[in-house]
Every structure is written in structure tokens, then in C-alpha cells.
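Sample entry as discussed:
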Amino acid sequence: MKNRSYMQALVDKRVAIGLFIWWLINLLQAAFTELAHDEAYYFMFSQQLDWGYFDHPPMTALLIWLGSFMGGEFGVRFFFTILQPLYLWILWCIIRPRDPHRSDATIFLIASAALPILQLYGFIAVPDVPLMMTAALFLLCYKRFTEDESVLNMLLLGFTMALMAYSKYHGALVVLFTLLTNPRIFTRSRIYLSGVFALMLIVPHLWWQYSHDWVSLSYHLHDRNGAFAFSNITEHLLNTIAVFNPFFFPVYFMAWKRVKSRNVTERALYFLPILFFIFFTFSTLKGRIQPQWLIIASFGLIYILFYYTREYASRKLRRYIIAVGWITISLTVLARIELIWNPLGIRFEVFDNRPSFETIADVAGERPVIFGGSYAIASKYNFYTGKTAYCQPDFFYRTSQWQFRDDDTKAAGKDVLWGILIKEKLPTPEGMNAVSLANGQKFIYTEISDFKPVRLVDIYYNEELVPEKMAGGDTLSCILGLTNPYPDTITIGQDHTQLFLLLSAKKLRRIVPVDLQLVLPPSTTKETVTTMTRIKVAIPDDLPEKTYDMGFAISRTPLSFWYNSPRHNLEIRTEK
């Protein structure tokens, strides 16, 4: 017993030292690698803390905000780097053997560090990192709850469920799949009470969603869906193999046949990779799958690889696992060097950001910049220059958290630049200016004097009076109520201002100009005026038969636009 305790302490110490060294490497990487697009976007979240955001729950924004006093990329990422060694230590505590061997630490660390997805998601500031941390806590509390259904363990389990909900919505899959691997747990009343406790804790986030028309659910479950393409499946399969180490996949299959779980928590770890893979494989029917959505599978893959290598692998196979593990780690070292110094001169989003955006800032001077295109570019401009920028939601791309900010309203009446980043080799549109950037792109822009936004004009119509089905060539006739919240008059039909009918079905987008001349009087602190008008617009006769999201938007050239009205389901038929 004494020797076993000594060996356990020795192995634990080696695991802790290995994770600590890994953390130090991630700290250096976090400090010297420029921000990816999404990281800059989440940095924008952190500037206005809230209970929710367009794309994700608030945990990512909170972690970035906590590190903001440190400044730079290091401050954005600092608390994310801390989470990885913590969640891997928790995983070790869950799966560590009762009869420790000296080689256990080496096997566990190589099984973890040889996963490319964990190498990348060990230092970047994205929601997947707090999801991994809170999922590890959930699995630990689940283990304790299944061993002792005390009130404390019940509350801790509910608390970790809430933490996952505040981290990333994929946490719901962790809970669902974990419980499905243990059907008997559904006969236990306290598992339901833990769920009720979790719901109570996430009420602030649910209220935020309700107050914002459940925008996150609408986006993730509806707006981002695309048409089926066979390439979605092949891309998903190849990405999965790549991020979880292609050298290990033959071993994973052998391990699933041999490794036997010792308890219900290990059974959950055993099945999580399979269930996540099946779920997202079916999800390819509705669009592309991002490889990091399967990152939770890392826990299960580490578990089965660790125990298979430890207890079942032949000496030759064990040498293979250790060897390819070290080879993979060596390759990731080269990739880390490339991310910092870019000796290969690759054009990628983490290179040449500061000089590129400083060039744009030199052109803009003190004028705010309104970016079209990617939602992240305005965030990067603000991060690397400290100057004001805004990203206009784009019907032909997507909307984002920017729709809940008022940066464009603050720029009203000022001179601004509007522009987008395009590839250097593309021609500059007539009437636009262009400046080349260090990142291999160019910024094409135009100057707008006395900027007048129209994004917040509210357009209302009675959905009950709008047909649910129409044919191409039919005329849509309905009464619109338009409210101008701005202190200046808006004239539709003049000053490059136009009303459009918007029709979207997955990736298909169509805009139809509405022939309308209308003056919208300004609002005052005492009075808001709604102007009523009847519009008639012909439905294009070449639209494919689909159900479209129909709505209305006001556009002021050259700005991009989004729906100014609620959306209505309109089924288009080719025949009347």
C-alpha cells in the first residue's frame, strides 16, 4: 500500500510537471502570435460585458475581460492558457489507474499532446477552451454524483451544467450524451433536480436571449444552415482524422474493441467520441462542420488510447504509439515557430495585422471606419490601432454581434470611411480608392461626408396579412409602418437610399428594389413618428421553389444592409 501511494504521488507529480511545461509553452505562444479573426471578434464582446452575445454565451468575453489589464494578445489569451492544464489534470484525476506504473505519466502526456487540436486550442481565446474546462468539471462531478447522490454532489453537478451553458451551447450535447450512456440515471430523481438547479442558474442568459428574440438559437439552428453537399461529408471526415492525429486512428479502432470501462464515467468517456462523430456526421446534411466542434471527443480518445497503450498494446505497438506521438509533437513545434515568425511567408490571418491596419488608420486619420464583409475585420482594426470602427451587417454574408452595438449611430453626422478588404490581385471598382496592405490584401474604400445611418429604422408589417405562398411573377402588396429613430429626416428614393424586399433561403439570396418615394420624419425625445405606406412589389419569376425568409431593408449606398423588419416565411411556387 505504501509503495502504491508513493508511485501514485510520483506519477501525479510527473503529470503535473508535464502540464506545467506545456502551459509555459502556451504562454509564450499566446504572447507572440497575432490574433486570429474570431479572437478579435470576441475581444469586441469583452468591451461590453453582457449575459449573452449574438454567437455565443458570455464566458469567453468574461475571460478576455479578466485579462485585459495585461494588454495585447497576451492579455486576451492569458486565462485561456490556464484552463488547458487544469482540464487535462481533471481528466487525469478521473481516469488514473488504481495500480500506477512509472510510464503512466508519459503515456498520458503523449496521448494528450499528440492531438493537434489540443495544441492549437491550448493558447487561443475561443469558446471551445472554457467548454473543455467546464465539461471536465461536469464529468468529475458526474463521477462523484454517481458514487454518492448527496445534495452537495447534486448541486455541484447542476452548477457545472450551468457553467457549460455559459461557455458554449455544445455543452448541451455533453450532458445529453453522457446521460444516454447510463440509462438507469433517468430513474434517479436528483438528476432532474440538478437540471432544474442548472436552469435556475442560467436564467439571466435565457432572459438575454428572450430580450433579443432568441437570436443565438435562430442563428445556430436556422440561419447558418446550408444546402447539402457531398463535400461536407468528406471534409468532415478528413478534418476529424487530421485534428485527432491520423497516426493514431488505427490504434483508436483497436482500443475501442479492447478497453473496458470501470465505471459509468469511463463509459461516458468511451462513447463520447462516437456519439459526437455520429451527431456531426448527420449534421453535414445541413452544412459544413467545423472540426473544433468535436473537441470534446479528445477526452474519450485520450482515455481509450491511454488504457490501450498501458494494458493491451504489444511492446512493438507501444513503441509505435510513443514514436508517432513524439513525431507529432515535433511537427507542432515547427507549426508553433511558423505561427510566431512566419519564416515561410504564408499569407494567413495571424500574420502582418499591425502594419496592415496601421496603414488603414493612416488613411482614415481621425475618421471612423465602417467595414463591409467579415465581422472580425473591424474588431482587428480597433484592437491593433485603438481607433473607432464598425462592421455593417451584410445580407449577402451574415449579421453578427455588431447589430447590437451603436457605433454607427455614434458616427452619425461625421465624415467616415467605408471600405472592405479584398485580394491584392482583384481590380479596384470604379469610383473607389485603394491602398495595398502588408498582409497581401488591399483596402478599397470611399469617403462619406456627413454620414447618415439607416440601420435602426424599424419596419413593421402585419404578418397575418402577408401571404404564406406565392408564385413567381405575383405582386406582393402590404402595408408597412416605418419608424425613423434618428434625429435627421430620411428620404427613401433619394440620396442613394432605397427600400428592398429581401428573400433568403440558405445560401440563396435575392434583393428586389421596391418603387417607393417616402419621407420619414425624425424622432425626438418626446415623439416617435411611424409613417404608414402601402407597397407593391413583383416577386421574381425565376426564383426556385423554396421557402424563403422574407423581409424588408433600407439600403444607403455603398453600405451593406440587413433586415430592418421581422422575417416572414414565404413559400415560392413556380406555378400559381
